Amino acid sequence: MKFNAFLVGATLMSMTFVACSDDEPVKDNGGNNGGGDNTPVEETVSGDVDGVWTANSIVKVGGHITVPAGKSLTIEPGVQVIFDDNGVGVNHVPIEFTVDGNLYCEGTAENPILFSVAEEDRVEDNIFAGLWGGIVASESCEEMLIDHTVIEYTGGQVVEGSPAATNGVYTAGDDAYPQITTNNINGRYVITNSVLRNGWSDGIYLMGGNAIIADNIFAANGYDGAEAVNVKAGCTVDVAGNIMFSPNTNGLKLSSSGQSENRGQAKIQVYNNTILNAGWRRDGEKGGGIYVEKNALVNVINNLVVNCKFRAMTPNYTIPNNPDEGYASASVIDYNYYASGSQKSDIVYEEESGVAYAWQGYNYDHENYYTGVVDKNSIIATETDSKDPMFVNYGFNEVPLTDYVYDENWDFHVKAGSPVLEGTYPGNDIVPYFAGGLTVNGQSYESPAIQGHFGAYGAN
Q1: DSSP secondary structure, 269-284, as one string
Q2: What is the enclosing helix (H) or strand (E) of 361?
Q3: How far is CA 347 from CA 16, 188, 344, 351, in A?
Q4: Which of 1, 191, 205, 283 is the most buried (most CB within 10 A)?
Q5: Residue 219: which of 8, 389, 18, 425 has the closest Cα?
Q6: CA distance readout (Å), 336 to 215, 270, 449
């Protein structure tokens, strides 16, 4: 199965949620909506869950839920999974969705799945409120599919009593939940055609596994740090065709942190992504698009970076091939396109870089710019040449750099004659890791082919 770009309107469901008392997983009682009168089935669940949550059901989550090891949960199209933002117990521990077994979210373009909170809480003031935990796939999770699924309002704080703290995945008092976590170096994960938005922490945090992350929309990931996609050692990943709007720090953090004899070097192919407004909400000389460190072996090509604070960084590139520090010298981070509108950021750290415009950050004398190697052949905007991508519908010179609310009317295809349609990586030696397929739930998913344009979408 090949992926097609999915502009998730995600104008999902203005509905009223009614609490129920049954603790069993949702079952089909007949009819497309689960009930003979076409009324969606509504159930409240907590504890262990597996089996099937039937299409168009409303599943209210009243406590931590776990897919047990050796079991699977399939979520059919149109299911709404609504988390109680009061949390668990007197300490209001954010509700966590732990996956020790397998999880298959099988939404469709016409009928996506929703992981959210009650409708009245889906407001701008709660974008970074962290109203529930997130999906945590443990070391025993063998495979997971997230297809045509919206995940939002996550990022609750990990505290004493959080399953992730008890299980040693995160540290109580120090961490907040990403929207999706993986931790099995042998796991198989496909995250595609989905929307991951409005979270305190990372969109996806991969600590292990083989993964395809393709054709998704990331928006407003990270309150005071964090990335859209964060990859560590023990991972082999293709990241392609994604839109990443206003991550707090970077669209992509690619690291082989944690590399050991048992947990191999992080290997990541990153191509044809569009990253916008990254880094402006983060202090310090961090953030802005792509950050590669600690011996991650990466190929980062044909990406479109728009109005971000800095361009690709490679800390400690003077210490090559060192798992604790350096830059993997076999990596290619080049043939990317950096565009800058005329906006000035309303947050400028004068005592640090003082960067106020994207073009200024792209040409800043940053200690982590590997000049002459990284982005040697990339196209980079200057004060007098914005390198306007000519989007079909996006305020290239108007959208404030620190904005994080995603407008579903934007269209990141480009007009005929756009400069992003030429000048891409000239070779054919870079191949997606899963061009031949990654099998999840008996279905083979293929990574998108590398396209001869910069960014996620070419011309209409």
Answers
A1: EEES-EEESTTTTS-S
A2: helix 358-362
A3: 39, 40, 9, 12
A4: 191
A5: 8
A6: 18, 11, 17
Q: Which helix (H) or strand (E) holds 359?
A: helix 358-362
Q: Which amino acid is at 404?
A: Y
The token duo for 176 is 């907040």
Q: How far apart are CA 435 and CA 296, in angstroms?
A: 20
Beta bridge partners of 143: 188
CA distances from 136 to 133, 295, 443 (A): 9, 26, 22
Residue 259 is classified by DSSP as -
Token look-up 């190929």 returns: 299
Cα–Cα distance between 303 and 272 in angstroms, integer?
5
pLDDT of residue 392: 98
Tell me how far apart the alpha carbons of residues 145 and 104 are, in angstroms, rounded to a whole number: 5
Phi-psi region of 73 (alpha: psi -120 to 50; beta: other; left: phi over 0): beta
* pLDDT above 80 for 360: yes
Sorted by sequence, the CB contacts under 8 Å of residue 395 that are 6+ apart come out as: none
At residue 196, what is the residue type? L
Q: What is the spatial distance between Cα 74 and Cα 62, in angstroms, rounded to a whole number?
A: 19
Q: Which two tokens stand for residue 18?
A: 């009614």
Confidence band of 31 (pLDDT split at 50, 70, 90):
very low
Q: What is the pLDDT of residue 7?
A: 41
336 neighbors 302 (Cβ within 8 angstroms): yes
Number of H helices, E strands in the chain: 2, 33
Strand pairing class (411-414; 391-393): antiparallel
Could you report the per-residue pLDDT of 145-162, keeping only the tens digit for each?
999 999 999 999 999 999
Nearest to 336, CA basis, from 356, 364, 308, 297: 308
Among 172, 344, 316, which Cα is nearest to 257's? 316
Query: What pLDDT score does 326 carry?
Result: 86
**Cα–Cα distance measured from residue 181 to residue 176, given in angstroms and rounded to the nearest whole number:** 11
Angle at 57 between CA 52 and CA 59, to 5 degrees: 80
Note the Cα 341 to chain centre separation in Å. Answer: 24
Spatial CB neighbours of 131, under 8 Å, sequence gap ≥ 6: 83, 85, 94, 117, 121, 153, 154, 156
CB distance 58 to 80 below 8 Å: yes
Q: How far apart are CA 220 and CA 291, in angstroms?
A: 18
Q: 55 and 111 in contact (C-beta within 8 Å)? A: yes
First to last CA, the chain: 22
